[in-house]
Design goal:
Chain A is of the alpha+beta class. Chain A has 12 helices and 12 strands. Chain A has 2 domains: about 5-55 and about 265-400, no CATH class; about 100-230, no CATH class. The two termini of chain A are about 30 Å apart. By secondary structure, chain B is of the alpha/beta class. Chain B has a single domain (about 1-225), classed as 3-Layer(aba) Sandwich (Rossmann fold). Chain B has helices at about 45-50, 75-85, 100-110, 115-130, 145-155, 175-190, 200-205; strands at about 1-15, 15-30, 35, 60-65, 65-70, 85-90, 160-165, 195, 210-215, 215-225. In chain B, the strands form 2 sheets. Chain B has a 6-stranded mixed sheet, with helices on both faces. Chain B has a 4-stranded antiparallel sheet with strand order 2-1-4-5, covered by helices on one side. Chain B is globular and about 45 Å long. The relative contact order of chain B is 0.20. Classes of the chains: A alpha+beta (about 400), B alpha/beta (about 230). The interface of A and B includes residues 12, 311, 394 and 400 of A.
Chain lengths: ~400, ~230
Amino acid sequence: MSFLDLLQFAWSALRGHRLRSVLSTLGVAIGVTSVVLLTALGEGARIYVTSQLAALGSDLMIILPGKVETSGVIPVIGGVPHDLTLDDALALQKRIPLIRKLAPATVGQTTVSHGSLSRNVMIIGATPEFLDLQRLKMGRGSSLPSGEITRGSNVAIIGTAIQQQLYGGGNPLGKIIRIGDFRFRIIGVMAPKGEHMGFNFDEIVMIPVATSMKVFNLTTLFRIFVQANSFQDLEPAKKQIIEVIKERHKEDDITLLTQDSVLASFNQIFTALTMALAGIAAISLTVAGIGIMNVMLVSVSERTSEIGLLKAVGVTRAQIILVFLAEALLLSLVGGCTGLAAAILSVRLVTDIFPSFPAEIPSWSVLLAVGVSMLVGVMFGVWPARRAAQLDPILALTRR
Amino acid sequence: MIHLEGISREFQVGEETVHALKNINLEILDGDYVALMGPSGSGKSTLLNVIGCLDHPNSGSYFLDGKDVTSLDETELSLIRRNRIGFVFQFFHLIPRLDAAGNVELPMIFAGVSREERQQRVDRALESVGLSHRSKHRPNQLSGGERQRTAIARAVVMQPSVLLADEPTGNLDSHSGQEIVELIEKMNREGLTVVIVTHDPGVGKRARRVITLHDGELVSAEDQGFKG
């Protein structure tokens, strides 16, 4: 029989019980919409976060003390990592000409106060290079003093929120701020910046890195931020940094993060998340498939006399299987296409309401949706189709 | 052209074995008009189903148009039913969602006949049963007699060698029943071999041969000459 005739026959059978057919296609449509929509949203989140990270700059590196493996719970033969010191930072700067700028940094948390007002805030110990590398600007006054980084003075710069909360929004320059047990003189206010790299820079206080190590009793730096001369110099600079540190620490006990590696990890995490979402949505497709199987089984049991008649006029078992499979496939394909259309519309709606959210339907999820809906139709249609083909025509025809 | 030798058919009903047909020997020649009669449970419908290749005998042989069909597999039997046999049932068995033309067209769709040819043959078949004006009606819009006429058109549209009718008038009033018998007889006159299962003696009287069954056995085969 021709393909078109088969389709027409299957279609007429589905139209015969319209409500049932519509409800089972709805199940598949919902399943497909969830798969496609959730993967699009997952993709969008990934693109959003990684593009934010890309703003970090491709010529930047971050040095962390300790290798990622040694900072785990399991004790390693190497033992505790060596301190990452200001002298290390100075050595790197002196010995590696590929490094254009570097900024050692520490973080700590304590109470700062002025008069009777106090707050518990994050303190960053840094250098003026740090502000350059993080693209932080000063709003008032001057930045941290440049010069010998091992000498720390008792000066501080504050964020606009601190200015508001402790100094009533007025001019804090020259005023004293207590940080822990120490007194600092304010020499500048940072321009408003907001959230960046996990910190809200309006709510921090920055002091020279050497002073911060005294205040918090630190022997090791939190990070060293490094800018290479160019993107091409990153890899060679990375190797040289490891060399220098190996020499000084007697082992390679630092972790170097480049934008590439951070991006790669984030990509991995988000891709895994998106896969998980797709997996969950795929479960709903399986449920929809069971719905189709149910509808087809009911259809077969309702149409026993039709099946008996078909056999009597010489329709082969293979053709009967084809007919019922075609019905199941039609149900799932119509559901798949409807679901896809609904997903495309929803994504468009999301991007209209949130234009900065780059939700995008990846082409693999379209193929997945259509492919899986066809697979569902065939898998869940086979058993009812075979039952139809195995029906005893005489029993079917002796019934009314 | 229908040659049955030693045909037996048994069924398992619970723990008992029912012998529906016991060692039937029968020959039906081309163009014959045969009535299969007998009380309820005599095996006449089972015999019709065996002749129609819808049921397999447990033993014996069946030659249809010279070909041994007892050794054929299910697919080959389907093709025999498609091309050589036409069935008419007591309860019509029309597909309710299709109109009369759609029902008549059915065997040809699965036989792979082209759309244009199907159209022509449907028209001719409906004309031969006098239903050209009702071709677009669904079964629930047709009278009992019209439904059976549609079924007959469907049975002959593939130009079978034999028409098998199982109680074709059983669900009709006497007037419609009469029309149906006359229609079947008209087709027999045009050369179609006809076998009717009936318990209606009025119908049985009209056939050329009456084969009587009792308890699965062939008890008599009477030649009555054509009374049509």
